[in-house]
């Protein structure tokens, strides 16, 4: 089993504390606003428009997530053993899985939470982090850190990890994937990812 995906509701809510924000925080803010726009669009809430709504949410997430980087980090040393075609296939499967899981949790959480930005750090090596605190409608708080990188020759900041209450999304995936590879094989992992994809597509 692939287990539960640690994704959470980290991009929902209203914005607070963005004065003087740097570029990484602004990029996260843009993604949040795009997601909130889709969630607030009542014309997309009809059952027959669910597929369109999810597509728009996926687009908002896709523009900020560095799926290839995330896929590479989740496989760790196993990434080096893959050829170009295998890497391309894995990135596609991983991206689809993450998008579906993330979008599903966004829709399930709904709007109404508030997000405050408490810290932004940027280093000279092209890495950054944006720390947020989410307060839901019941007053409970969740601390979420977005970790971003800026590739050489590319000015875009990409999310490569999300840490929710101290739990790294990438580390969580890496542990699950590594266990499956050791118990079975890389092909066994791909088989499970394909099965998960087929099950999700059957529900849509």
User: Numbering strands along the chain, what is their spatial order in the largest sheet?
Assistant: 1-2-3-4-5-6
Helix content: 40-55%
CATH class identity: Alpha Beta
Question: Which regions are unreliable across 5 or more consecutive residues at pLDDT < 50?
Answer: 1-20
Q: What is the number of strand segments?
A: 6
Taking the alpha carbons of the first and last residues, their distance comes to 21 Å
- What is the CATH architecture descriptor? Roll
CA radius of gyration: 17 Å
The arrangement of helices and strands along the chain is EHHHHEEEEEHH
Question: Which descriptors would you attach to this protein?
Answer:
single chain; 204 residues; alpha+beta; Nuclear Transport Factor 2, Chain: A; six-stranded mixed sheet; 6 helices; 20% strand; disordered N terminus
Description:
By secondary structure, the chain is an alpha+beta fold. It has a single domain (14-203), classed as Roll (Nuclear Transport Factor 2, Chain: A), CATH 3.10.450.710. Helix content is 49%, strand content 20%. The protein contains six helices and six strands, in the order βααααβββββαα. Strand 5 and strand 6 form a beta hairpin. The chain starts with 13 loop residues before the first strand and ends with a helix.
């Amino acid at each position: 089993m692939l287990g539960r995906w640690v994704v959470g509701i980290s991009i929902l809510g209203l914005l607070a504390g963005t004065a003087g924000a740097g570029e990484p925080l602004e990029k996260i803010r843009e993604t949040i606003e795009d997601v909130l726009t889709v969630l607030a669009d009542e014309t997309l809430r009809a059952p027959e428009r669910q597929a369109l709504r999810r597509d728009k949410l996926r687009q908002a997430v896709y523009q900020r997530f560095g799926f290839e980087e995330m896929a590479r980090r989740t496989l760790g040393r196993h990434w080096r053993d893959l050829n170009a075609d295998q890497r391309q296939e894995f990135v596609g499967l991983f991206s689809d899985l993450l998008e579906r899981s993330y979008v599903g949790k966004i829709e399930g959480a709904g709007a109404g939470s508030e997000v405050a930005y408490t810290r932004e750090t940027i280093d000279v090596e092209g890495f950054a982090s944006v720390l947020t605190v989410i307060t839901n409608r019941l007053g409970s708080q969740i601390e979420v850190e977005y970790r971003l990188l800026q590739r050489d020759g590319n000015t875009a900041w990409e999310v490569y990890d999300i840490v929710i209450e101290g739990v790294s999304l990438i580390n969580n995936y890496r542990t699950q994937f590594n266990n499956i590879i050791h118990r079975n094989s890389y092909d066994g992992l791909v088989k499970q990812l394909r099965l998960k994809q087929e099950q999700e597509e059957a529900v849509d």
